[in-house]
UniProtKB/TrEMBL annotation:
<dbReference type="Pfam" id="PF23322">
    <property type="entry name" value="PPIase_AIP"/>
</dbReference>
<keyword id="KW-0963">Cytoplasm</keyword>
<dbReference type="GO" id="GO:0005634">
    <property type="term" value="C:nucleus"/>
</dbReference>
<keyword id="KW-0802">TPR repeat</keyword>
<keyword id="KW-0539">Nucleus</keyword>
<dbReference type="InterPro" id="IPR011990">
    <property type="entry name" value="TPR-like_helical_dom_sf"/>
</dbReference>
<dbReference type="InterPro" id="IPR046357">
    <property type="entry name" value="PPIase_dom_sf"/>
</dbReference>
<protein>
    <submittedName>
        <fullName>Aryl hydrocarbon receptor interacting protein like 1</fullName>
    </submittedName>
</protein>
<dbReference type="GO" id="GO:0003755">
    <property type="term" value="F:peptidyl-prolyl cis-trans isomerase activity"/>
</dbReference>
<dbReference type="GO" id="GO:0005737">
    <property type="term" value="C:cytoplasm"/>
</dbReference>
<dbReference type="InterPro" id="IPR039663">
    <property type="entry name" value="AIP/AIPL1/TTC9"/>
</dbReference>
<keyword id="KW-0677">Repeat</keyword>
<dbReference type="InterPro" id="IPR056277">
    <property type="entry name" value="PPIase_AIP"/>
</dbReference>
<feature type="domain" description="AIP/AIPL N-terminal FKBP-type PPIase">
    <location>
        <begin position="28"/>
        <end position="154"/>
    </location>
</feature>
Length: 267
């Protein structure tokens, strides 16, 4: 074990638990990084908050893609393939961890991590943040603490070495993907392939909602994106009607009617 202070990064201490192999990989914008992580409190018990190995699925992030916990990019960029290192991070780096953890836990539970963005309107969003749905994360949100991150670097892929899914796109790329996904959904709908069409519409909606979070609510850019999302949601609902999923249709269309009275139909 070897302790070092991470150069140029205040409030981080690195301990190498297992040395990696080869040279330090290139970490450029668009690089996809696959790794295991374990997050622990700095208490006597070293309480484990999250452990990707227990879930059975490694974490993936794309460098420069505005991942909420951007300190992980800094930590990973100091590692070699197969290296296992422990990082002590002060509270200046861990404040948003509860939000990131919530998303990861929802994925592990088989839930959509951005489902609230699709189904919940502006005022309700404010109350959705009152509780994260997990007691330990609520406590950490109220009182941020230093954390230990134990990271194991598994794979580093350059942008040309993998197919980029919608979550890995930049905001500009997401907006370009929306009409393509919309068109693919329409084609599948006309072919009667309603389940496949819903996936295309849903992916397009998620792209829009991810971009929309960067805009101020109810400003012109936000409203333009909202209109696009509503159109896709209505198309999504048309597929659900064909599949006789009536309750979900009622949920989605009620949200739209409450926010935008008089709007109807789909394209």
């Amino acid at each position: 074990m070897r302790d070092t202070m991470l150069t140029g990064s205040e409030g981080i201490k690195k301990t190498i638990l297992h040395g990696g192999t080869g040279d330090l990989p290139k970490f450029i914008t668009g690089t996809k990084v696959t790794f295991h992580f374990r997050t622990q409190l700095c208490d006597d018990e070293r309480t484990v908050l999250d452990d990707s190995k227990k879930v059975g699925t490694p974490m993936e992030i794309v460098i420069g893609n505005m991942f909420k916990l951007d300190i992980w990019e800094t930590l990973l960029s100091s590692m070699r393939i197969d290296e296992v290192s422990e990082f002590w991070c002060d509270t200046i780096h861990t404040g948003v961890y509860p939000l990131v953890s919530k998303s990861m836990r929802r994925i592990a539970e088989g839930k959509d991590p951005v489902e609230w963005q699709v189904h919940t309107c502006g005022m309700a969003n404010m109350f959705a943040y009152h509780s994260l749905g997990y007691d330990d994360l609520d406590e950490l949100m109220k009182e941020p603490k230093p954390l230990y991150f134990v990271l194991e670097l598994l794979r580093v892929q350059q942008p040309s070495e993998y197919n980029r899914e919608s979550w890995a796109l930049s905001n500009e790329e997401r907006l370009k993907a929306v009409p393509v996904l919309h068109g693919q959904g329409n084609k599948l709908y006309k072919q009667g392939r309603y389940q496949e069409a819903t996936q295309k519409y849903k992916e397009a909606i998620v792209c829009i909602k991810n971009v929309q979070t960067k805009e101020k609510a109810w400003d012109v850019p936000w409203l333009k994106l909202e209109k696009m999302a509503n159109t896709l949601t209505l198309n999504y609902c048309q597929c659900l009607l064909r599949m006789e999923e009536y309750y979900e249709v009622i949920e989605h269309t009620t949200d739209i009617v409450n926010q935008h009275p008089g709007r109807c139909g789909c394209r």
